[in-house]
């Protein structure tokens, strides 16, 4: 026993032999912590023989283990993850010695075993096999090293094997991740290994403390990927699925789930065009696939539909993205834009009560301030008698007046624990966000409770959840923060005072779109209060092994109450005589879901099947009320006494209410088949109907098939040096997109217009739309071919995907001829589009030494979009194009053209090529020769560029050195143009009559002369700039505090900067602009400015 | 294994139960929507009302109303420092370079055909009984009324677009063009057939609806321009229709010049057919917003603020044609220094005249870009104190003065100059109350050339006179211009007098005789391969 104390030996080995019962008890106690780490471990005991007999054909490894336990009385301990990754066993043995038997069956599994007393510990062998063999013990001991092992999040890792290289000394960490090891004389290096993590090696120097942060294996084929209605091992995946775990999330301040995975998934563009604290990200997967259909990906949180903000980012455990059609087809009519499966943090098995506290504080600044004339520069214009320049004798920096240095705070507290039968996780997150524009804010409280219960020996599993959020933020008239504040802060006269001598805000309501920006903020009161309450749960019945039936019920309730008031000092009174304006609105929605699924696993010989069948039923109902009133006797009521206003009584103010509903129901089936784990097949079909479809097309079928071939398992590749995995896969799937709103196919009438009959106004019956009973889903067919690769024990790994997605029957507001149609557009399925692209993902660990490790991952994606048709047999758009997007007043032109044979996002307008001696634009006429802009004709317009980036590159790096880790996320978008609206409007001298100008307004254009003072605003190519950028998006430096406190298990502090620096030639505020819709690439002059964020955070585990 | 099957069986049974309890019916459940199939019509006026209600759309700055004015020589919508370029859509109307994508073309086309398609449907619904007539009213008379509305839209269609599709039933067949002549004939036939069944009443029930007299005025207008439409004058026919209206004795000239244009003008004895507006119930008439300068808000303490420096303003050459004593000049045009409602505080400019008193001056440098205070503005329609963004003034589409002047013109053209002059003098009387002698004109005067100084203006000066040949019956055209300014008549009148595409004014030069009709909107052609653009616009 003394020996055991001197030489660190695995704890399991040190237990004295006693009765079976005693041993059981002790073991239970000691391995509790082990269980926490390994998740579901299985344990059993009997005592019989030392030899094994077996006749197994395609038996699960777990069954073989059970057999061994029964025959030998040994306990077999293994990670459930190991079991899942195991290849079925086909083996015959008669009274084979146990060790030989284990050698034989585990060899193919890349597993190894160690026998300690009566316990067999199964671990993965790939990275450990050289190091853990300890034939002898040395009695000599020089000194002792202690330390703490944590994972990437700083959580302590229990059961980590710590050994001194080339010596028998070995130990494991305790529940707090601490270890203590005696180092023999010959010990030179410390080796730290645990399943699922990269092994680490440290040179033993003079230090007596060695702490280590373990990085999860970069590409772990055992990794479980969440796919539609289930999970699958990475190795068996045949489709394009990206899976991002919490440790790989973008660190630092994030506003929603999409920002966590920005830059992590090839082909998934996540843009946050503005810094509004209520903004959510724009997501686009593999290019734009629709015209007027929904562009939002289907977002499922723990299997239940929701949105990006349904769950607090800090409560997310993993995000899986079903990218290609064959993966998403199981979601049928909603699968086209991709499916994002968000898994919240879970509790698994038996867990001691664990409290986690996560908090960060953020401040922000605008990434760039646009250069406008200050008061002195402006006065020079007044001195030059420039038309419109008026000196009011003051100096006001309107941007300073309307912006603030915000402080945002986020606190997340979570508690988890439980027994093997019942466990729970609850969390509470409080987010108090503030933005750089005054009054912009967003406060959210996210409560969450999840309970799991298992009974009847595991036959019945029950999962119950309650979560949601309570949100409150400042809003203008129920909407968002007003872009008018920022815009007017830029353009309001810098010589104007804030207020006149009587304290009244300076306003000049005679000028169009010109309002005192500070008064806009100060004289408005607005609050949106939104509540989301989600109750869902499931019951899973497993009547016999391999067969499970699951029923999922969910109700998602959303309530929003909005109030807004503009005082009598507000611009609305100055310009429109509102005399106090209020609006109120409320929305309630209920989203009910019922899903019933059954799945069956079966292995016959080398054949393994998984069958899934299911039924889904979803009903969504939304009600909305909205009213406005004005002309209030006093400002005191704010928006709280709507009847006090007079406008409603006079019939001037509007009131609205509406209710709509839609229903979706479908059946789906899926077969997964693999032969010898080498040849993989997935086939699925969903038969689905939506109430939003026209009477003639309620139901559709969405099939998918995909194949995979694990090449590295073939004999001819077995001996290839360095190759650790290679899989070829291909899939084809059909997905759909629902119409955006309900009732689009119906022949609707309304009473929205009045007619004067017999001296009074009566409501006329007015047809609302052109009905289309043939309205159906958009149909996308996608072919995806991919290759997954891994070299050098997956130290280098990644994937390459090529896809072609063809969207047919695109839902568009299709122009139809009037006559015969009443209205000039109909919502119909009559266009097609094609997207082709390549995605390359590369993960590597270039450096891995004892203390230092560098993990890097890069991805590249490119997409080529083309509109292939804007017609079908019924609706033909003879011109082959339509124009979309708008410059707004006073230019009033379409910015983009959607044209057959061209990609979505084309800027379409006049190509400016020069300026004449008087300062007027010269454009290129349709014959290619220059002409004055005054002689413009519609057919002089041409394609000027495209607003959608064609290429995206992302590069993520993680460096860790001892307890310090550094994350650097960089990303770039290339080959696209931006319409610089702020230049187009405010670098033109003519706009001086309407406010302040950019300081470059009188600089030479085309190197010749400034624009003429009366050159009216024009949408010309001069204002299109290349948007290409490379952004150092996020830099996070973290430090895991070495602790040996019995209560505080982990402490981590970190500092982070988001949107740190952008390399770009673009002259606007930030080249990351709108990528959604048909008019992408416009740097909106009203957009809330982009921001850089500085964050300090702390993470504690108790 | 048996137990396994048993358990599986139980599961399947349970699943079956659950599935059976779900409802797979995918019919849409409507709450705040209504479908034609499910609605039971009870009030015929609600059913036919939409055809009238749609007419309000015509009276806007990007629609019929300003198209008729700004493509002609009396009103122009130039850009200025406050904006109003809008991609050149107004400028193109002035210089006759509009194209098939101008929103005005699309708006006119769509509204006219919305009227046609709605009336086709309503006629069918009245015929098959889906829409029952109100008690005491026959289906026949309602059908006659709706056919008249349809004829009204077809008149506007062939007047503005020439050859256009003629559809008379509820259909979704793609139509081809029908000649202007056939449409003319259709309109004449429809009106002739319908008129006998129309009510002769002029009372609140028939206000702003087609009674017999409104239909006859419509027909008079059609005949008046018949020579333009079909190459055959129908002067006598026009006179006959006018005589019927005159002889009905239901309508009189107002003695007050502005009575037919007041906020509450629905009782005006002069109005034969109006498009009624109400600031709350039926908005869209906003001439004060697009003509006026924003600071004029303070003149009448309107709640809405006009758009920028305003745009629609008088062409100085046209203003110059007014007799100095013609009271219609100050009554219909806003002129000179402007004051707040207190009458003493000068209103000031905001743009190129920033801070300086706002003095509305007559002369324009050109029709492309003017100063914020340049140009006389709309003063014809009363803008009430505290007006909102929409006015409540009804738009008098046909009024008695027009019937008199149609008759006068036809008489003049058929050699009865003095009879014509008597009618014209009647109309002039109220415009020369301080100088009654000037109200009287003679047949010879009416036959004289116009007093309009045509010619291209550059920097306030006529630089290219262009065609200076005399305008036949030019004085008659002048009379129409003075009387009907701001009423959307000018384009049709200029075409009839043959000068719309020959004379130069302000920044306008002749740009092709084919521009007497507008191109078919591109959007209508794009989606209908059977529809061919007019040859000159191809």
Radius of gyration of chain A: 33 Å
Rough shape of chain A? globular
Strand order of the largest sheet of chain B: 11-10-12
- Number-wise, the strands of chain A total 57
Quickly count the helices of chain A: 14
**Most extensive interface:** A-B, 99 and 109 residues
Helix content of chain B: 25-40%
The portion of residues assigned to helices of chain A is under 10%
Q: Could you report the average pLDDT of chain B, rounded to the nearest whole number?
A: 93
Q: What's the average pLDDT of chain A?
A: 85
Number of strands of chain B: 12
The SS-based structural class of chain A is mainly beta
Task: Explain what you see.
The complex is a heterodimer of chains A (1102) and B (538). The longest helix of chain A is centred in the N-terminal third of the chain and has 19 residues, at 20-38. Chain A starts with a helix and ends with a strand. Chain A is mainly beta. Helices cover 10% and strands 47% of the residues of chain A. Mean pLDDT of chain A is 85; it is low at 1-48 and 126-141. With 538 residues, chain B is mainly alpha-helical. Chain B is built from 20 helices and twelve strands. Chain B has helices at 2-21, 44-53, 64-70, 89-94, 103-127, 139-161, 180-194, 212-224, 226-230, 235-248, 287-291, 297-300, 316-319, 328-332, 400-413, 417-429, 443-447, 474-484, 490-496, 522-526; strands at residues 34-35, 75-76, 271-275, 313-314, 333-334, 336-337, 359-360, 377-378, 395-399, 455-458, 461-464, 505-506. Chain B has a three-stranded mixed beta sheet with strand order 11-10-12, with no helix packed on it. In chain B, strand 10 (455-458) and strand 11 (461-464) form a beta hairpin. The longest helix of chain B has 25 residues, at 103-127. The model of chain B has no long low-confidence stretch (mean pLDDT 93). Strand 35 of chain A pairs antiparallel with strand 1 (34-35) of chain B.
């Amino acid at each position: 026993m003394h020996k055991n104390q001197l030489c660190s030996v695995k704890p399991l080995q040190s237990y004295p032999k006693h009765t079976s019962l005693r041993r059981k008890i002790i073991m239970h106690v000691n391995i509790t912590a082990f269980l926490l780490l390994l998740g579901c471990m299985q344990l059993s005991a009997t005592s019989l023989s030392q030899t094994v007999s077996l006749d197994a054909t395609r038996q699960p490894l777990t069954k073989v283990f059970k057999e061994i336990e029964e025959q030998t009385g040994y306990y077999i301990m293994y990670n459930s993850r190991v079991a899942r990754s195991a290849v079925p066993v086909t083996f015959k043995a008669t009274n084979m010695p146990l060790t030989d038997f284990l050698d034989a069956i585990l060899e193919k599994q890349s597993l190894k075993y160690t026998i300690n007393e009566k316990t067999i510990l199964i671990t993965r062998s790939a990275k450990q096999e050289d190091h853990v063999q300890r034939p002898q013990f040395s009695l000599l001991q020089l000194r002792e090293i202690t330390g703490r092992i944590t994972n990437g999040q700083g959580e302590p890792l229990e059961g980590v094997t710590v050994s001194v290289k080339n010596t028998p000394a070995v130990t494991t960490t305790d529940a707090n991740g601490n270890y203590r090891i005696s180092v023999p004389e010959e010990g030179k290096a410390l080796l730290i290994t645990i399943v699922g993590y990269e092994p680490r090696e440290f040179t033993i120097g003079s230090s007596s403390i060695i702490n280590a942060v373990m990085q999860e294996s970069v590409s772990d084929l055992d990794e479980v990927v969440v796919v539609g209605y289930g999970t699958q091992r990475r190795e068996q995946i045949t489709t394009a699925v990206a899976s991002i775990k919490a440790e790989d999330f973008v660190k630092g301040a994030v506003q929603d789930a999409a920002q966590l995975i920005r830059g992590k998934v090839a082909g998934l563009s996540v843009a946050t065009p503005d810094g509004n604290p209520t903004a959510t990200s724009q997501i686009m997967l593999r290019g734009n696939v629709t015209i007027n259909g929904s562009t939002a990906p289907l977002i499922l949180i723990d299997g239940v539909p929701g949105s990006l903000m349904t769950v607090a980012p800090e409560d997310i455990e993993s995000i899986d993205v079903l990218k290609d059609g064959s993966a998403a087809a199981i979601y049928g009519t909603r699968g086209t834009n991709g499916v994002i499966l968000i898994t919240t943090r879970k509790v698994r098995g038996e867990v001691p009560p664990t409290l986690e506290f996560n908090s960060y504080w953020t401040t922000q600044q605008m990434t760039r301030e646009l250069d406008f004339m200050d008061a002195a520069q402006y006065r020079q214009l007044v001195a030059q008698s420039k038309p419109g320049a008026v000196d009011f004798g003051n100096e006001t920096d309107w941007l300073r007046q309307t912006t603030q240095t915000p402080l945002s705070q986020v606190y997340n507290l979570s508690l988890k624990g439980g027994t093997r039968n019942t466990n729970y996780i609850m969390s509470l997150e409080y987010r108090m966000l503030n933005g750089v524009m005054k009054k912009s804010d967003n406060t959210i409280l996210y409560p969450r409770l999840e309970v799991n219960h298992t009974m009847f020996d595991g036959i019945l599993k029950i999962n119950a959840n309650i979560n949601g959020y309570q949100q409150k933020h400042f809003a203008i008239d129920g909407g968002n923060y007003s872009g008018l504040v920022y815009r007017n802060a830029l353009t309001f006269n810098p010589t104007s005072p804030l207020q006149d001598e009587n304290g009244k805000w300076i306003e000049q309501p005679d000028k169009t779109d010109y309002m005192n920006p500070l008064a806009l903020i100060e004289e408005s009161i607005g609050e949106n209060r939104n509540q989301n309450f989600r109750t869902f749960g499931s019951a899973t019945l497993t009547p016999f092994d391999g067969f499970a039936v699951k029923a999922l019920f969910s109700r998602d309730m959303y309530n929003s109450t909005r109030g807004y008031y503009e005082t009598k000092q507000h611009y609305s009174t100055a310009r429109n005589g509102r005399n106090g304006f209020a609006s109120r609105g409320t929305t309630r929605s209920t989203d009910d879901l019922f899903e019933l699924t059954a799945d069956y696993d079966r292995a016959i010989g080398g054949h393994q099947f998984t069958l899934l069948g299911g039924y889904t039923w979803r009903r969504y109902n939304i009600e909305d009320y909205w009213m406005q009133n004005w002309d209030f006797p006093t400002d005191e009521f704010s928006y709280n006494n709507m009847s006090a206003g007079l406008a409603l009584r006079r019939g001037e103010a509007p009131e609205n209410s509406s209710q709509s509903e839609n229903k979706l129901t479908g059946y789906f089936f899926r077969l997964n088949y693999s032969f010898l784990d080498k040849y993989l097949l997935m086939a699925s079909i969903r038969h689905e109907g939506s109430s939003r479809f026209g009477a003639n097309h309620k139901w559709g079928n969405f099939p998918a098939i995909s194949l995979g071939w694990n090449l590295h398992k073939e004999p001819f590749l077995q001996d290839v040096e360095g190759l650790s995995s290679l899989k070829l896969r291909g899939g084809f799937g059909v997905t759909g997109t629902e119409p955006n709103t309900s009732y689009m196919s119906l022949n609707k009438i309304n009473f929205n217009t009045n007619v004067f009959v017999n001296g009074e106004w009566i409501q006329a019956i007015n047809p609302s739309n052109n009905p289309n009973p043939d309205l159906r889903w958009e149909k996308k067919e996608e072919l995806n071919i991919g290759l997954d690769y891994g070299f050098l024990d997956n130290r280098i790994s990644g994937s390459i995907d090529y896809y072609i997605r063809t969207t047919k029957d695109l839902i568009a507001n299709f122009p139809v001829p009037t006559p015969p149609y009443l209205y000039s557009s109909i919502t119909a399925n009559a266009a097609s589009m094609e997207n082709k692209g390549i995605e390359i993902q590369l993960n590597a660990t270039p450096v891995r030494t004892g203390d230092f490790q560098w993990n890097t991952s890069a991805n590249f994606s490119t997409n080529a979009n083309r509109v292939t048709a804007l017609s079908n047999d019924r609706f033909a758009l003879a011109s082959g194009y339509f124009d979309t997007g708008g410059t707004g007043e006073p230019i009033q032109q379409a910015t983009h053209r959607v044209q057959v044979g061209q990609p979505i996002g084309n800027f379409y307008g006049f190509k400016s090529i020069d300026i004449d001696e008087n300062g007027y634009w010269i454009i290129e006429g349709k014959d290619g020769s220059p002409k004055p802009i005054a002689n413009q004709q519609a057919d002089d317009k041409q394609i000027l560029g495209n607003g959608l980036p064609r290429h995206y590159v992302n590069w993520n790096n993680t460096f860790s050195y001892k307890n310090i880790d550094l994350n650097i996320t960089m990303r770039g978008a290339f080959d696209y143009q931006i319409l610089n609206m702020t230049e187009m409007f405010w670098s033109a001298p003519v706009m001086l009559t309407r406010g302040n100008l950019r300081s470059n307004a009188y600089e030479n254009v085309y190197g010749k002369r400034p624009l003429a003072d009366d050159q009216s605003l024009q949408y010309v190519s001069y204002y299109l700039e290349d948007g290409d950028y490379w952004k150092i998006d996020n830099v996070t430096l973290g430090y895991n505090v070495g602790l040996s406190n019995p209560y505080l298990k982990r402490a981590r502090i970190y500092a982070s900067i988001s949107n740190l620096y952008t390399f770009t030639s673009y002259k606007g505020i930030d080249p990351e602009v709108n990528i959604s819709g048909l008019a992408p690439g416009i740097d909106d002059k009203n957009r809330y400015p982009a921001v850089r964020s500085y964050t300090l955070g702390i993470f504690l585990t108790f | 294994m048996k137990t396994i099957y048993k358990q599986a069986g139980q599961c399947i049974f349970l699943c079956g139960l659950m599935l059976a309890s779900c409802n797979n019916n995918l019919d849409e459940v409507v709450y705040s929507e209504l479908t034609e199939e499910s609605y039971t019509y009870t009030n015929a006026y609600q059913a036919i009302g939409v055809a009238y209600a749609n007419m309000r759309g015509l009276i806007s700055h990007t629609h019929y109303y300003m198209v008729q004015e700004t493509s002609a020589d009396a009103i122009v919508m130039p850009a200025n420092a406050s904006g109003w370029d809008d991609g050149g859509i107004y400028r193109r109307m002035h210089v006759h370079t509009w194209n098939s994508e101008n929103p005005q073309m699309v708006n006119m086309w769509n509204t006219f055909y919305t009227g046609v398609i709605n009336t086709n449907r309503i006629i069918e619904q009245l015929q098959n009984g889906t829409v029952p007539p109100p008690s005491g009213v026959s289906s026949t008379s309602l059908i006659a009324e709706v056919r008249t509305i349809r004829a009204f839209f077809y008149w506007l269609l062939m007047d503005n677009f020439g050859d256009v599709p003629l559809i008379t039933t509820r259909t979704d067949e793609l139509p081809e063009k029908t000649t202007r002549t056939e449409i003319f004939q259709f309109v004449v036939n429809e009106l002739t057939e319908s008129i006998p069944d129309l009510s002769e009443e002029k009372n609140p029930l028939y206000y702003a609806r087609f009674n017999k007299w409104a239909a006859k005025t419509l027909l008079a207008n059609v005949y008046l321009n018949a020579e333009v439409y079909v190459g055959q004058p129908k002067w006598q026919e026009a006179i006959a229709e006018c005589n019927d209206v005159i002889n009905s004795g239901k309508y009189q000239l107002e003695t007050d010049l502005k009575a037919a244009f007041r906020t509450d003008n629905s009782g005006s004895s002069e109005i034969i057919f109006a498009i009624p507006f109400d600031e709350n119930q039926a908005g869209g008439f906003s001439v004060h917003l697009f003509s006026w300068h924003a600071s004029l808000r303070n003149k009448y303490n309107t709640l809405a603020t006009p758009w920028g420096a305003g745009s629609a303003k008088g062409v100085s050459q046209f203003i110059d044609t007014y007799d100095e004593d013609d009271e219609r000049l100050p009554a219909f045009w806003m002129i000179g220094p402007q004051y707040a409602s207190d009458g003493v505080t000068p209103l000031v400019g905001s743009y190129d005249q920033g801070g300086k008193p706002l003095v509305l001056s007559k002369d324009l440098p050109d029709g492309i870009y003017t100063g914020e205070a340049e140009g006389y503005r709309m003063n014809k329609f009363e803008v009430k104190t505290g007006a909102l963004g929409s006015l409540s003034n009804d738009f008098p589409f046909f009024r008695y003065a027009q019937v008199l002047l149609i008759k006068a013109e036809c008489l003049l053209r058929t050699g009865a100059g003095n009879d014509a002059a008597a009618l014209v003098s009647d109309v002039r009387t109220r415009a020369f109350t301080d100088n009654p002698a000037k109200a009287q004109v003679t047949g010879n005067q009416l036959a004289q050339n116009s007093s309009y100084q045509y010619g291209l203006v550059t920097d306030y000066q006529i630089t290219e006179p262009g065609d200076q040949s005399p305008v036949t019956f030019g004085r008659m055209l002048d009379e129409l211009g003075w009387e009907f300014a701001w009423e959307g008549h000018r384009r049709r009148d200029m075409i009839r007098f043959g000068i719309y595409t020959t004379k130069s004014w302000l920044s306008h030069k002749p740009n092709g005789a084919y521009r007497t009709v507008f191109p078919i909107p591109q959007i209508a052609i794009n989606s209908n391969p059977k529809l061919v653009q007019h040859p000159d616009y191809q």
